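protien #1 (seq + structre)
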Amino acid sequence: MGYDIERFVGYVNEGLLCSICRDVLEDPLQAPCEHAFCTACIHGWLVHHSNCPEDRQVIDVALLRPLYRYMKNDLNRLQLHCRNREYGCEMVCSLESIDRHERECEYSQIPCSNAGCTVQVERRNLDGHLAVCEYRSRECPNGCGYTILSAEDSQHNCVAELRTELELLRSEMICRVEEAKHEMESRLDSQRRHMVQKESILQNEIEELKSQMSRMMSDVRSLMVAERQHRQELEQAELEKREL
């Protein structure tokens, strides 16, 4: 939909009106037949039609183009009242700058920023409303440090709130201790398994060394026996040599 023509000061050229809603063009697009439309209007029209609503020439979304520059300039220079005129705003500015003004207009209706509050107030009155809003929050005046809503003042109990907070902290601490305990046990189990594995490997190596030592001792004994036998043979040969 376009801008309500009643908001404008002075005469508005017919060519700057939307051919569908007949209000002043908003975010305009132009068909090849040079008829202009609000973007929202023409897109909605083409959902159910395939021609221009003025001269019935066939058009398609892909054929729509931005407004001619001179028409765009004429459109931007139009003067109109702020949409908050009914609330007291007397600002009149160009169409080109109206959006910027209305985003900052002191007479704009804006929602209260307090969670749970559904009241809408003028921007200029927001601070006054926040000061008395029943959903406003503030720190407990008794010094417990809690943030409370004004509506909860009569129900707020510092001792109960602190006791609840203490229980939550205790529960959280217990959970953290349990997590740390489980993590430490897991690490110890992992280290224990690693040590058992290493011990097994070392035990196997020791057994292998013992086996090698046993074989070496057996070989040494065999060598000593062979040497003794060889010595006896030499002595026997020496005696036979002497007898001869």
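ok now protien #2
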Amino acid sequence: QMADPFLYNTGERSKYGCLGHEVQIEHIKAYICRPSFFTDKAVIVVHDIFGWLFPDIRYIVDLIAGHGYITICPDFFKGTDPWKTTDHWVDFADWMKHHDPMKVDKEADVVLEYLKEQCGVKKIGVVGFSWGGMAVHHLMLKNPQLAAGVSLYGRIIRDSEERYNLLNPTFFIFGEKDHTISLNQITLLEEKLNQYCKVAYKIKVYPGQVHGFAQLKPEDMKPDDKPYIEEARNDMIDWIKMFI
């Protein structure tokens, strides 16, 4: 049986009044937020297991848009149910088989085309959390159209040496107290990237932080965690701004 990987209670969340709106792009629904001025830069946000409707992820979309990017979070689950707080962790492995973060290429392509054709975007980055962090790691190995990526606490999958030959600059963010990702795994990731990666990369571990720490809304943050959450988010934005 798998331990509950989230140390916070995702059920106890304050509501969030979104700044963006929903759009339909081919077979995918998406939440999009635009800055108040024209820009030809965009960021795709890949949600976690709780899906594209979860208030925390929409808050992140709005936050990134506030820095001057057309920001979009597609429903990578294509209308199927996300993981729910009432679901049992014993079923998680089975659920993951039907929600594979390595099978996001088609949806990513649809959204990339939409951003370029409909929104006049020239440069695109991608940011993903947990399940989405795994998807970002995958996309940064496969899709040269993504100019930069930030993977936040995506479980590290080691299936081959190809996992480390990133196409464009990628930043990996982890929490020190994340019991789904060991510090040994992070060290190995660093060694392998050092060996195989030909582009800029960065790995940073934030003290005392658990899985999912960086996507909390301000009112849901504990005072001790707040500086690290804000630092991680500033680091994420700085990385995007450096390359996009």
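The chain has one domain: 21-243.
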